[in-house]
Specification:
alpha/beta; Quinone Oxidoreductase, Chain A, domain 1; 7-stranded mixed beta sheet; ADH-like_C; oxidoreductase activity, acting on NAD(P)H; NADPH binding; GroES-like_sf; Quinone oxidoreductase
């Protein structure tokens, strides 16, 4: 099969053996694969959890038809089904995923490209907003790094859950101008050093009850200022750097719960539960077309390196997808 792999000469599409599913795995004939920021690090030769290094097939989410199932896969997943999944090796004609990370597509009207944009965003942001952020109806929330596909999904999930105010942080003015399409009540320019004051003004001095932070680095102390007393900050990503100043006294004064999350150290059972909870809460909205992501550009699998370069340029809005 064809697959985009990491080599000493960069990302190249080569012929590689077709993967075989284990007893609890599903083999998918991939039709489309979504790009994610983590793919850039793997493409550069870095490890991402258990994957990385020369020979690694890139990709963390995909959609296609079930080609085969392992002997211990529940009979709700069958060959021929149209599915979306999170799992390694999605930039390929075939990929395997644990059965607990596989979701049948809502209906025949959802195309492969749209389906490939959803698994990571739905799982990551339901876990951050609902499970770890414990957002309640009537509370306010700030999504940092809101212009990413995951961020856009976070704002939609928060609005669906009844948030009183949904705020989205970004340094990109073109992206901020579109946030209202995705449930955002106030777009915050985090390039302005006074952005925490704007958040406080918008919340009558209280601050937001929940912050989902995909940026870290330079916004860490601003998050502490913008967060309500007894608020929650969920650290999901470090797009702005994994090191930065942190005002421990302000953290204590505001009695903030600071929660770090990542899929890299979660067990198979934990990820299955994340996917189960997401489907329990959100699948009706997915089926109704209420949770969707914009597609910035679609590349053929043969142009995987060009697709990654497009992501690296950071000029896109929404998801970049490979057709396989």
């Amino acid at each position: 099969m064809k697959a985009a792999i990491v080599t000493e000469q960069g990302v190249q599409v080569r012929d590689v053996p077709e993967p075989q599913p284990g007893p609890q795995e599903v083999l998918v004939r991939v039709r489309a694969a979504g790009l994610n920021r983590a793919d850039l690090g793997v493409a550069a030769g870095h490890a991402h959890g258990r994957i990385g290094g020369p020979g690694t097939i890139l990709g963390l989410e995909f959609a296609g038809e079930v080609a085969a199932v392992g002997s211990e896969v529940p009979d709700t997943i069958r060959p021929g089904q149209r599915v979306m999944a999170s799992g390694a090796g999605g930039y390929a004609e075939y990929a395997v995923a644990d059965w607990g990370r596989v979701c049948p597509l809502p209906d025949a009207n959802m195309g492969w490209v749209q389906a490939a944009t959803l698994p990571i965003a739905l799982q990551t942001m339901h876990d951050a907003v609902a499970t770890n952020g414990a957002l309640k109806a009537g509370e306010s929330i700030l999504i940092q790094g809101a212009s990413s596909g995951v961020g856009l999904m976070g704002m939609q999930i928060a609005k669906l859950m009844g948030a009183r105010q949904v705020l989205g942080g970004s340094r990109n003015p073109a992206a901020r101008s579109r946030f209202a399409e995705f449930g955002c009540d106030l777009a915050v320019d985090t390039a302005d050093p006074a952005w925490p004051e704007r958040v406080l003004e918008a919340t009558d001095g209280r601050g937001v009850e929940v912050i989902v932070d995909q940026v870290s680095g330079g916004v860490a102390n601003g998050n502490l200022r913008a967060c309500a007393i007894l608020g929650r900050i969920v650290n999901v990503g470090r797009l702005g750097g994994s090191r930065g100043e942190f005002d421990f006294d302000l953290h204590a004064l505001r009695r903030i719960r600071y929660i770090g999350v990542t899929f890299r150290t979660r067990s198979v059972e934990e990820v299955r539960e994340i996917n189960r909870r997401m489907r329990a809460d959100l699948w009706g909205a997915v089926e109704a077309g209420k949770l969707r992501l914009p597609v910035d550009r679609v590349f053929p699998l043969a142009e995987a390196a060009e697709a990654l370069a497009h992501m690296r340029a950071n000029t896109h809005f929404g998801k970049i997808v490979l057709e396989c």
